[in-house]
Write a sequence for this structure.
């Protein structure tokens, strides 16, 4: 399910993995390196994370055409295995801060992730819906690797 407005997107997806594994995929730098970014052939160069309220993060990744992107922000709310809320700012678009909220809902052996990215800059060059959907698809792909 997806919905979009000018400055907000909403995406939800069900994953074939438990909440604990999905939580790790979103909070452990070594796992984030396996999926972050929308390009299926993109790579993550650097992940810095201090996963605690007030802690900062910065992620640098490249698309397969070698276009580099860096996002950064601050963790606002963390409820382990339930939700992450953090600010978001592109290095290439300084001064506009948006907010990402990710909730994790256990469905037995599966997990529903609901992602809301709001206060988006309508002039942004980034395609947020495609971007987050691409990243979530990469999470689905790496779950097969990290579940083993």
């Amino acid at each position: 399910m997806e919905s979009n407005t000018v400055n907000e997107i909403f995406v939800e997806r069900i994953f074939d993995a438990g909440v604990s594994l999905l939580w790790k995929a979103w909070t452990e730098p070594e796992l984030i390196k396996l999926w972050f970014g929308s390009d299926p052939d993109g790579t993550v160069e650097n992940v810095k994370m201090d996963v605690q309220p007030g802690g900062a993060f910065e992620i640098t990744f490249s698309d397969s055409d070698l276009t580099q992107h860096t996002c950064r922000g601050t963790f606002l709310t963390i409820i382990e295995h339930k939700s992450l809320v953090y600010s978001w700012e592109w290095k290439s678009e300084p001064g506009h801060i948006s907010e990402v909220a990710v909730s994790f809902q256990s469905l037995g052996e599966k997990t529903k992730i609901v992602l809301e990215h709001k206060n988006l800059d309508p002039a942004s060059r980034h395609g947020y819906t495609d971007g987050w959907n691409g990243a979530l698809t990469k999470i689905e792909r790496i779950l097969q690797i990290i579940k083993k």
The chain has a mean pLDDT of 93. The chain is about 25% helix and 45% strand.
